[in-house]
Design goal:
heterodimer, A: 169 residues, alpha+beta, Alpha-Beta Plaits, 4-stranded antiparallel β-sheet, 28% helix, B: 553 residues, alpha/beta, Rossmann fold, 6-stranded parallel β-sheet, 17% strand
């Protein structure tokens, strides 16, 4: 996902209030900014949540997105995470139709990707895979050869590499 | 001391310096109304005909005074009726605190009677909003609302209070009036860089907006203009910020601005944008606006930099703080050749032709300014009359031309004029409106009558929705769809029906007399001015156009 042109990862620290997510989402919607994926999670500080948004846009649009989200009263910090300086991770769950004829094949692909099989029935299995978005894209490309029953990706969660800490404003 | 939520609200309002409140009662705010009864000596309540009128009155009060306007409404329809008023204030960066009641917390989320999720509805039109679920949080939430509304780029904040919270009791600890906590963080290098660009300019030009007024930087701006002989033009929001008597003030720019002002922007080599946001009514074509200029932008809101027009140098902070530091670094200068050119353009500006036998819009505005004098506050609705008022009234002071610039809210004027007159009972407040806009909220006449607020309303009646019709004339081959409602309203009778006075005029002499009487009547007055429906607002540059596309007739 982030390998593609103009995909940008933003990491927001926001007050852990109800309604914050609605405000951020409403702002993106109103101003015509895209949301490719969005994750919200707790942080080590119970008063602060982290929102990780993958969005799309050129330099001017990105500048606007950062400034507009930064203006929200409950936003404490907005950081643009550049792929080369950041760790981006995503989790995939995919349920694939797999009877005895293809099960072994799928298992060997999973081994190569270090994916885990977390559920197994006579006719299907569920694979769990964690990794960079491109790794997950690659794995999904392989799975397309089989019958995918349903799937889910968490969207990107990300941190800057090294000992940098983006504190709250 | 132990107080209930409603008493806490009243206490915090007093503590924040609120002595005037606009609103309308209802079920969910019965407790609040009851508490305000005990505070009636400290807080004067004005009950309007409609919550929308109350919201515009709070807005007009805030625009005229610079203080935070406060409006109170009940839940459900009371709250939704505020929406247009809140959005109007938001678009023009007016400090306002809107307080709404809501159903009790046990009824929220059950589609209860008069329940609406007003916090959700107003999310994109407020700086911030709150739902107060615990009485213990109420006082500090209200204080935060006043701080946010008046800090940085100003704007409306909504506080929604469920009914049980207005009755619940807790310990109240008195607090202090919230001050503007904004601090400008600008380096010397940023200021020096701007001064350097200005000092090298041969054809400098200042384009200023409402932010100069919000920052109380009117005198500083004039000082900068004079020191380096920089001609300047203003947006609709900034009429009066530099008086029209200042020779370097070229007047209104943009879609219906003076051609000379727009030419100056077009040909400038340095354009300094101060407290303004390059809206589509001024930077009509963002690619070609000030195409030859190095652009410097000074504004408090970082998100306004590079939003519509890409600038070369920006300084983000309070305009006054920045100008105070910038002016000493700007060299005294004369730009003789540039000023000669500009004066030549000014001479070439087409002036409207007088005709005393009928009512010409520019003559009405000139007469209003002549009689209302230097202290006048002009309040407009939206449409052709608004542009005429911007073009032809004598704008001498800031906070004296109140108009819905960003949202363009028809029906804004009467409420706003009432708010302004309450703030300044000794200044003439002239509400300039059109027959279209006036029909939207003329019901506020009852408010003006009830409290005897002597606002003079001048209705520019061309019997059509003039601005819409003008566009249809120019761009839609005179297909007047929806713009000729053919109303037969008798304004004199309606005014009298409300308990106000009404006059009708068809020529300048009649108008002059009617206005003279109206100014002495000391009660709300309507003056209907019959004008020709073919009157246009000129010059006009169509949306997306440049000075080359200007229409002058």
């Amino acid at each position: 996902m982030t390998d593609k042109k103009n995909k940008q990862v933003l990491s927001l620290l926001v007050d852990n209030h109800s309604g914050v997510l609605a405000r951020v989402a409403s702002l993106f919607c109103q101003r015509g900014f895209n949301i490719d994926s969005l994750t919200v999670s707790n942080t080590d500080n119970p008063e602060i949540s982290r929102i990780t948004i993958v969005t799309e846009g050129d330099k001017q649009m990105l500048e606007q997105i950062i400034k507009q989200t930064g203006k929200l009263e409950e936003t404490r910090n907005v950081v643009h995470l550049k792929p080369e300086d950041s760790l981006l991770r995503e989790l995939l769950l995919v349920k694939v139709a797999a009877d005895h004829r293809v099960r072994r094949e799928i298992c060997s692909i999973c081994e190569i990707y270090r994916a885990k099989i977390v559920d197994l029935t006579v006719t299907s299995l569920i694979v769990e895979l964690t990794g960079s978005p491109s790794k997950i894209d690659g794995f999904m490309e392989m799975m397309k050869e089989y019958q995918i029953i349903e799937m889910c990706r968490t969207g990107i969660t990300a941190l800057a590499r090294g000992d940098v800490s983006h504190g709250i404003k | 001391m132990i107080l209930n939520g409603s008493q806490i609200l009243a206490e915090v309002l007093v503590e924040q310096g609120v002595d005037t409140l606009f609103g309308y009662p209802g079920g969910a705010i019965l407790n609040i109304c009851d508490a305000l009864y005990d505070y009636r000596d400290e807080i004067k309540q004005y009950i309007t005909a409609h919550e929308q009128g109350a919201s515009h009155a709070a807005d007009g009060y805030a625009r005229a005074t610079g203080k935070t306007g406060v409006v109170l409404a009940t839940s459900g329809p009371g709250a939704t009726n505020l929406v247009t008023g809140i959005a109007t204030a938001y678009m023009d960066s007016v400090p306002m605190v809107a307080i709404t009641g809501n159903v009790g917390t046990d009824l929220i989320g059950r589609d209860s009677f008069q329940e609406v999720y007003i916090a959700g509805i107003t999310m994109p039109i407020t700086k911030h909003n709150f739902v107060v679920r615990r009485v213990e949080d109420l006082a500090d939430t209200l204080r935060a609302a006043f701080r946010i509304a008046n800090t940085g780029r100003k704007g409306p904040v909504l506080v929604d209070i469920p009914k049980d919270v207005t009755a619940a009791k807790c310990e109240f600890v008195p607090g202090k009036k919230q001050e503007n906590t904004y601090v400008t963080h600008v380096s010397d290098e940023e200021i020096e860089a701007a001064a350097d660009i200005i000092n090298k300019a041969r054809r400098p030009f200042i384009y200023f907006g409402g932010g100069v007024g919000s920052s109380k930087a009117c005198q500083d701006l004039r000082e900068l203009m004079r020191k380096a002989e920089i001609p300047a033009a203003h947006t609709l929001m900034a009429a009066g910020i530099v008086g029209c008597d200042e020779p370097l003030n070229l007047g209104l720019m943009g879609m219906h601005g003076r051609l000379s002002a727009n030419k100056a922007a077009d040909k400038a080599d340095v354009l300094i944008a101060v407290g303004t946001r390059f809206s589509d009514r001024v930077a009509l074509n963002t690619e070609k606006f000030a195409k030859d200029a190095t652009i410097i932008q000074i504004d408090i809101d970082p998100s306004e930099v590079n939003k519509n027009v890409i600038v070369d140098h920006s300084i983000v902070g309070d305009v006054k703080d920045i100008l105070t530091r910038l002016i000493p670094l700007v060299n005294e200068a004369k730009h003789t050749e540039w000023m000669e050119q500009i004066n030549k353009w000014r001479d070439e500006d087409k002036k409207p032709v007088d005709d005393p036998s009928v009512l010409k819009p520019h003559q009405i505005m000139a007469e209003i300014s002549r009689q209302a004098g230097e202290n006048a506050i002009y309040v407009t609705d939206v449409g052709q009359h608004q542009m005429w008022a911007a073009q032809f009234c004598r704008h001498l002071h800031s906070r004296s031309f109140l108009t819905s610039g960003g949202l363009g809210t028809m029906g804004f004027g009467y409420g706003a004029a009432i708010g302004a007159k309450i703030a300044f009972p000794n200044r003439p407040v002239i509400h300039i409106t059109g027959d279209g806009s006036f029909h939207m909220n003329m019901n506020e006449c009852c408010t003006a009558v009830s409290y005897n607020i002597p606002v003079v309303t001048v209705i520019m009646n061309n019997s059509v929705l003039g601005m819409v019709r003008q566009w249809q004339t120019v761009f839609y081959n005179r297909r007047y769809s929806g713009s000729e409602p053919e109303r037969v309203t008798d304004y004199v009778k309606v005014a009298e029906g409300f308990g106000a006075k009404g006059y009708r005029c068809e020529n300048l002499e009649q108008f002059s007399k009617a206005l003279e009487m109206a100014m002495k009547d000391n009660c709300p007055v309507w003056i209907e001015c019959v004008i020709d429906r073919e009157e246009k607002v000129l010059p006009m540059i169509p949306g997306g156009g440049t000075v080359d596309d200007v229409m002058e007739e």
